[in-house]
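Instructor's aside before we start: the two examples that follow are unrelated to each other. I chose them only because their records fit on one page, so don't look for a connection. First example below.
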Amino acid sequence: MFQRLHDQNHYQVLEVSYDASSDEIQSAYEVARDIYSHDALVSGSILSDHERRRTFDRIAEAYQTLIAEESRRLYDQRLGLAQSSNRPVVHEAVAVCEPGEDVVEETQELDKIDREPAVRPAPPRTCPIELQPAEEASGAFLKKARLAMGLELATISEETKIGRSMLEYIETERVDRLPAPVYLRNFTRQVARCLGLDEERVSTSYLDRIRRRPSN
């Protein structure tokens, strides 16, 4: 993976297909992270510390881009990935590039793509429970709210496009598995919206709680 790392796109870095699900991306990231983390013995015996850190940073960049629906959509557009009935199809006329670089060649195929009808958002919900004035938006509270509404994780995942495993990490407060705060804030806002809760309060409270917790 570390050879010609910056010549690879995010999907190649994580070694997942272009139509990989959020759970597959999450799983690939966890495997790569375990290999290239600061205390990994395998990569430490092969790579210098600088090479290992560089590789790990590249893996984290790929994961953080692909795990969030909107950033993945924008990145797919840069790669020239068109939404088909399943998921992306690569147009060979498009040159893959790293973030910050200009696309060498643009394709006109995108102009020919039939746009899918807009998906109608789910109707707003009202949660039967709410955060009390001094209560934190813990993972346990989010799970309690979800169960109070009779919703499965699969339903939340389908509506938010957040992988089920990530939703489980949020509910169980797996600090070692949660993404960077900027992405976690977006995820918790989407979950709160899906549950009919105050998005800003839930997101801010949850992140404040997680920041105070040790990673181990």
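Example two begins here.
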Amino acid sequence: MPEETKSSPPPSAGQPKVPAREPVAGAPPSAAAEKSPAGATSEKPAGAAKPAGPLAEPWTSPLVAKLKARYGSGVCEAASDRGQAYLVLDRSITHEILGILCEEEEFDYCVDITAVHYPKREKPFDLVWILYSFPRNERLRVKTMIAEQESFPSSTSLWSGTNWLEREVYDMFGIRFDGHPDLRRILLPEDWRGHPLRKDYGIIEQDQEWVEAHLGIESGQ
């Protein structure tokens, strides 16, 4: 018998035969044609410029006018950043103004006290209070700069809850608060050396002597 040969199945009834496509003038090249020759590099177009972030705006209010009238240039800045009002004050008047805010302006709750460390700056610490007024439903940040080894008056006589907040700032940054009733570390052991939230404290740094003496191991990492 003659040997059968394999062939493509005939098109089904009613199905037209599709002719091979020819390149269309002006059409983009195929994926194969887009490939660059070996060693060739294609330059990417420059991306769009990154839009500038929101800028702080001057903050005017009866409170700001009152403080500027009383303290003049001691009120270094009064501004609002994305709806959050803040005051930057000279250190010499900051504690007195905190008292005014608490006793005269109804900022009856100190939400937090924190700090920021800028090692290369002449006064390397920003000390920041975040205040809230329940009667006015208003939030306010107060900031001042202090020098290395410089202390600041405690706010515990104004807001009793700042006791632990000031202890945390002392523990993490080494900033002391004069008049605090019990200023000692709150997160780390009292005899730990160093303050972990300072920029000159390494991210994996630890008091190696304390770890060996109290935990009996070479490293706490």
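DSSP finds five helices and eight strands in the chain.
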